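Bug #77: duplicate submission created two jobs. Keeping one. Sequence:
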Amino acid sequence: MTLVAEKVKGAVGGVVVTPSSQGLAAFKRPDCAAAIWHRRPRPEFQAWIDGLQPENLPNGRVILHRSAFRAALTELCDIAKTPPCREREQLINDATTQAAVFADLMETQYLRLRLQAVTTNACRKFHIDAVTARLVCTYRGIGTQYGVSNDRSDPERIFTVPTGAPVLLRGTLWPATPARGLRHRSPPIEGTGETRLVLVIDPITDPEDA
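Kept job's structure:
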């Protein structure tokens, strides 16, 4: 997928926003609760993925070695009958690149891949995931929403990750407590007719125990 990096202002405290994948290294800083690779897809790619029938969006969940990521994505597209074209290859290439960047950052060889077409209000409550860290990228529809809340109530200010921009989030299993009470959710869309396509990647230490 061809992308355009953008600069953004006004990010909430504890969230690093970077126009490049190299800037995601800030995710490991003690004061960082999340990092966003701020970018947007080219209009032709977005028009293609937005125009796909929901049943043709790839869906699946699998634990795999990082070297098998591209093949798994290709198989999920084949199963969903995602039409072969340049944009499909761009989707596969982009998700594979994100997996490689994340695996390098987390120093892991194994990943949990979840690619999901979402039409409901699942995960609509603000929360912190029970993982060490997680990468989320919304390819279609409204992106992940986040904000700061120290008493488990909804944040007063809610921010939305741009469509096509990966966000790295610390979970409850991160060695240190996530900074600044940052919580996130999937935006509530049930009843709107919207279908989101969300890529989720988790690091796996031991695939036999996962």
